[in-house]
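Input (structure):
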């Protein structure tokens, strides 16, 4: 009898309706993940903000445009820059020269691996973050850019000191893009 009662309570506690048609309590978030102390959060790819904010836009040869929509300082000690790259030219384009000249980054063809942040006031250059296998923490543009196409990107860097908010984003032969970092550590 004790086992039956225990099972009935367990089923009642785990079961329930799918939520369709039942009201959500005020302040509750039905899509919020359940917290388990022994689970580690999953790594996610930062997304470009939904807004149309443009921090900077630079144009390169043959109709290539780099638009930066956000540069956010995260509590983990890094800065995530995100935006979009547009090929408004008439030919297919692969940004192979954007992967940088560093030997460690050779396996990151057609990516944002060659990007850097430059703090002119502090006189420091911050290179793209990478994992232990030399893969950049950035977007890899698989398949390149067909004519008249665009793709979103992200690139992560070590964060400059907390007092530094203005930096230049640089990649390959594109002109430097002056941006302001938002957020706080």
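Output (sequence):
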């Amino acid at each position: 009898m004790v086992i039956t009662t225990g099972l009935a309570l367990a089923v009642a506690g785990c079961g329930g309706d799918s939520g369709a048609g039942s009201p959500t309590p005020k302040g509750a978030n039905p899509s919020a993940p359940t917290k388990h102390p022994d689970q580690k959060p999953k790594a996610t790819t930062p997304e470009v903000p939904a807004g149309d904010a443009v921090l900077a836009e630079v144009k390169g040869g043959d109709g290539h445009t780099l638009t930066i929509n956000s540069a956010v300082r995260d509590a983990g000690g890094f800065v995530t820059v995100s935006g979009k790259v547009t090929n408004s030219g008439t030919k297919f384009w692969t940004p192979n020269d954007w992967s940088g000249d560093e030997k460690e980054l050779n396996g990151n063809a057609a990516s944002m691996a060659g990007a850097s942040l430059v703090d002119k006031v502090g006189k420091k250059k911050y290179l793209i973050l990478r994992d232990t296998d030399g893969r950049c923490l950035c977007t890899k543009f698989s398949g390149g850019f067909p004519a008249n196409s665009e793709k979103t990107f992200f690139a992560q860097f070590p964060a400059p000191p907390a007092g530094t908010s203005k930096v230049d984003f640089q990649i390959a032969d594109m002109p430097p893009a002056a941006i302001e970092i938002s957020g706080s550590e």
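Notes: Confidence is low (pLDDT under 50) at residues 1-50. The first strand starts at residue 56 and ends at 59.
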